[in-house]
Prior knowledge:
The structure holds two protein chains of two kinds. Chain A is mainly alpha-helical. Chain A has one domain. Chain A is built from 15 helices and no strands. Chain A has helices spanning about 1-5, 10-45, 60-70, 80-90, 95-100, 115-125, 125-135, 140-170, 175-180, 190-195, 195-210, 220-225, 235-260, 275-295, 305-334. In chain A, helix 4 packs antiparallel against helix 7. Chain A is globular. The N and C termini of chain A lie far apart (about 55 Å). Helix content of chain B is about 50%, strand content about 10%. In chain B, strands 1-2-3 form a three-stranded antiparallel sheet. The longest helix of chain B has 29 residues, at about 115-140. Classes of the chains: A mainly alpha, B mainly alpha. The interface of A and B includes residues 226 and 299 of A.
Amino acid sequence: MSEVLKSLPVELIQLVVGLICLAALVGASAVLLVWMERKVAGHFQRRPGPFEVGPHGLLQTVADAAKLIGKQLATPRGADKILYWAAPFIAFLPVFVVMLPIPWGETLMALDVDLGLLLILAFSGMGVISLCLAGWGSNNKYGMLGAARAVSQSVAYEIPLLLSVLPIVFMTGSLSLSLVASVQGTWPWDWLVVRQPLAFFIYFVCAVAETNRAPFDLPEGESELTAGFHTEYSGMGFGLFFLAEYANMVVVSAVATTLFLGAWHGPGSDLLGGAVGVLWFMAKVVFLIFVMMWFRWTFPRVRFDQLLNIAWKWLIPLALINLLITAVLIPLWR
Amino acid sequence: MQLIEKISERLEGDAYCRHFERRADSETLVINLGPQHPSTHGVLRIVAELDGEYVIRAEPVLGYIHRMHEKMGEVKSWWGFMPNMGRLDYLHAMAWNQAYICAVEKLAGIQVSERGEYLRTIAVELNRISSHLLWWGAYLLDLGAFTPIMYAFEDREILMDLLQQPTGQRLTYCYFRFGGVYADMTPATLAGIRDFVPYLRKRFPMYRDLVTGNYILRKRIEDIGVIDKDMCRRYGATGPVCRGSGINYDTRRNEPYSIYDRFDFDIPVYDTGCGMARYMVRFEEMEQSLRIVEQCLDQIDKSDGKHVAPKSPKPNYKAPAGEAYQAVEGSKGKIGVYVASDGKKNPYRVKLRSPSFCNLSLYAELAKGTLLPDALQILGSIDLVIPEIDR
């Protein structure tokens, strides 16, 4: 056994272990985040939220997941079966790849890729394909409208998203997330958000839009399109979309934390062999996710043309100007 | 067939609707909003033809909850028809109560006790507030804001608890009786109502800051779904819909009934005719209703008599032959009840004029050319109650 292990390359073992840990992380974080979302919603709405299953309803999501798994998987008549069932998987699978290069701690990451940022941006773009297939394949008019919205929304918001992370790449000269993280310091004024506040703002707005969260949840806009692209999905088909939404929230918040909020850096982050740093990272991610939930339970939904106007008329020009200014200032700083 | 096409070219309504599916051309998408759709608030069906996200045509289809209230009026006794009134507009049941009871009182010349009139006014105005609160929450739900409805329900819950004491009901009230009301409000209830007035007033600034002033909300509803005065007159729109379009018409003022002439209150009117105008009208009406309730509470102790007039009609009551019409101001608009009697034990004819029906009829014209989210937002802004439409 040990002979076999020795003959395997170290990177492969690291990758396999990393992937298993990530799968556990995605599952656990989704369960916890759904619970958190419902608790946040509850307290925003003057009610306790889930309370019956487990202490403070902590096991409610587990019970719901068990229910979803037990449900029948129905395919609507006239649906394109292959596309219809491929869509939830395409929504969910990129999440693993995207989570690989995220530096959870100073040494804790599944895979240190030099092009980590590019990897994340490339694979998170796959999400829109799944929404498109789900809407198109389910032979449902609401689904199709949702898919059409999802595509134009993603196309519009991926551009400012890219443009808002480019200044960071300019400043650090690297696409590797661990390197970007390591150039930042312990205290908040050493973080890149201080030098790039506009980029952080644009990134965060785009991240909310990319994950289809309110107030930009138009592809599933409940009051207009019943449930948009996932109208027809039942059981775990819907469950996977749901999981993917929360996993994507983790990813965009983790990227924001790495690029702008000093990653694992924080007071005392090198104590206990970096474990405190991991806690700092998690705390920042959870805080960003809380802000996204705060948006959802406070704001009304924007209209579709307004959504696109924000992207094309405001975010893209602003991001471009920000990029130009950064490009001019970098030689001056040096 | 050509004739029908010609008619339907000009008509916007049911005849047009029946040929909807056939007339959609290949570039457009016909979509059924309802009868089970989250934003039609009940069993209303809107058949919409979409070009992308633009609504080319949107026709309401009625009849999914038709319960023959008018026919029931001809079969039930004068007394027995009362509970039907709470089931028309279940959100402002008191106004329908008042319309029917006042119509019969007018027909038969029944005297109403003064205290009864005050109790009626308090009940109607509190119910108007709860109706507007529910509309407020549901409208924002249409716009994708989930939280306000919970706050609205919190306030509404207090109102329902208060009205539960005299009426014994929480939603489909049947509180009014010929000559007065079913039961007097206890001192505890009256004290509770007195406490409720400042409580709700304290909540309004919060709603204004968190919701009315919200930038996204303003962008969503300002200058969208504009109903002009002419359109209001053509379709007979009343209530906040016409007052949001600059027509200063409130039945309480223009055709005084009950004891509304004793109170000092304003009629909020806005000129723009957009969703925001209707929103503001309803919001300010809640404040005016609070003023009326406050004045009622001040005057009620000086009023004469019990909650119901002595020698008021009993359940086997037969109204004398004749006819009468009474209009009252409901939360949705002008509620009209016409009763005709031939002296028998049940009405000869009951005709109900429901404000939601008239307000809905302008929807087909209004929704044309808007975006789908706007079309649904406009539907929310005219505040419909479906059982009232299908009466």
